[in-house]
Amino acid sequence: MHEAIFDEVVQALKRIINMTAMGNGLAPQVAMGPLQNRMQFDKVVAPVEQAKTHGAQVVCGGAPLEGPGHLYPLTLLTEVKTGRPSSTKSSLTRPCP
Q: What is the CATH classification number for the domain harbouring 83?
């Protein structure tokens, strides 16, 4: 993404993420429920933790939510090093070029 619009896009994505209700997937006001199982949860946690270890900045999310189930919030990272697995592959995440 071009640096001229980077901050604007990050803030727009952050607003969208922060408006997304998470929790019990059966509740009508919830848009994002828990991950299906521990294996899927671990597939989300591992690349985020790896990215953070290598200098990624957490704009929002980035840590499991308290409560029952495998709740992991929508997460927005910046400063992710190119070529790291966290920047190129995850079953549930996608980079924004």
A: 3.40.309.10
What's the rounded Cα separation, in Å, for the pair 82 and 97? 10
Residue 77 structure tokens: 């990272």
CA dihedral of residues 11, 91, 42, 75 (deg, nearest 10): 0
CB 80 within 8 A of CB 23: no
Reported as a single tens digit per residue, the pLDDT across 14-39 is 999 999 999 998 999 999 999 999 99
Q: How many domains does the chain fold into? A: 1
Give 37-96 pLDDT, tens digit per residue.
999 999 999 999 999 999 999 999 999 998 888 999 999 999 988 765 554 455 455 556
Residue 97 covered by a domain:
no
Q: Is residue 68 part of a domain?
A: yes
DSSP SS3 for 83: coil
